[in-house]
Amino acid sequence: xxxxxxxxxxxxxxxxxxxxxxxxxxxxxxxxxxxxxxxxxxxxxxxxxxxxxxxxxxxxxxxxxxxxxxxxxxxxxxxxxxxxxxxxxxxxxxxxxxxxxxxxxxxxxxxxxxxxxxxxxxxxxxxxxxxxx
Length: 133
Known about the structure:
By secondary structure, the protein is an alpha/beta fold. It is built from six helices and five strands, in the order αβαβαβαβαβα. The chain has a single domain (about 15-130), classed as Rossmann fold, CATH 3.40.50.2300. The radius of gyration is 14 Å and the shape is globular.
């Protein structure tokens, strides 16, 4: 019961990721920082964003469904209730120019896979601090 109460006080972070192992790893790395909620598609992510208060979005760009992470960005940014939620691209797209491309598309931060625990935690904490201001 104590664990549930502690988890309820943590900020909600949506991780749009369709690989269960990646989700489980990030959930473990962030277990004391946030309540990690998983969506495996753009539609599922949009439903969760409308149903729950989400503080940050961790976004895998390559999703197995027909829509990718960039499509989610194009659906979030015009929405006045969602557009201020910080988005961290967590992606294997790590070629020259990818980071600039994703930042231009609307993500606030970029983290290429594989990443270190410190890099992930640092970016999440940075975005949470912005949200709290």
